[in-house]
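Exercise 7. Given the encoded structure of a 203-residue chain, write a plausible sequence.
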């Protein structure tokens, strides 16, 4: 299999775009509860992100795995479109997630590695915060604490922060000062999520 040496920034960018698309799909159809499935989906996203950060996944592999996650989201959307999510439909999604979990394992343990796994731009702490914020937004949708409009704006704020992070990394470095700047943006985003979830508006 041909080695696909993509810069880690490209890998993270591609995967982030896929997750953003899947996130807004989830916003549009979050009308039935599926906490077990949601947890599996989030865990798999985290595994893909960790694989990119560690160099175990190339950009092409991360893209394919992210696309697989997106297909599962779209199938879940179709199932939920009638405001029902039956036991049989849940079983189908669980089977799909089992297959995608195996795919992640296989891709992370093959011989392909990220060609530009440079410690200078690694940022697991920031990545963890971003995905934690996304989980909080998703939880707010499911609980009814966030309206669709609020969730969209909060998700867009996360997207802007991610774009800024990519710009700061574009020169191949991610300095302490730049990391502090992103953390400050995430602090503001975290406060926004809290305020929106605790205002008087409900979905």
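Solution.
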């Amino acid at each position: 299999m041909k080695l696909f040496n993509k810069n880690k920034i490209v890998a993270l960018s591609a995967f982030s775009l896929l997750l953003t698309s899947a996130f807004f799909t989830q916003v549009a159809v979050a009308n039935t509860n599926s906490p077990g499935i949601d947890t599996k989906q989030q865990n798999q996203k985290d595994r893909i992100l960790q694989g990119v950060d560690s160099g175990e996944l190339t950009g092409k592999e991360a893209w394919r795995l992210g696309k697989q996650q997106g297909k599962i989201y779209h199938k879940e959307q179709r199932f939920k479109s009638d405001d029902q999510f039956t036991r049989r439909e849940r079983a189908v999604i669980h089977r799909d997630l089992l297959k995608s979990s195996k795919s992640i394992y296989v891709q992370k343990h093959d011989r392909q590695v990220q060609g530009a796994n440079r410690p200078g731009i690694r940022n697991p702490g920031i990545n963890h915060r971003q995905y934690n914020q996304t989980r909080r937004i998703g939880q707010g949708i499911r609980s009814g604490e966030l309206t669709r409009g609020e969730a969209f704006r909060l998700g867009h704020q996360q997207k802007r922060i991610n774009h800024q992070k990519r710009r700061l990394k574009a020169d191949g470095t991610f300095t302490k000062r730049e990391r502090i700047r992103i953390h400050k943006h995430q602090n503001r985003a975290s406060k926004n999520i809290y305020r929106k979830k605790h205002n008087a508006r409900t979905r």
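Remark. Residues 119-203 form one domain. Students should compare their own answers with the one above.
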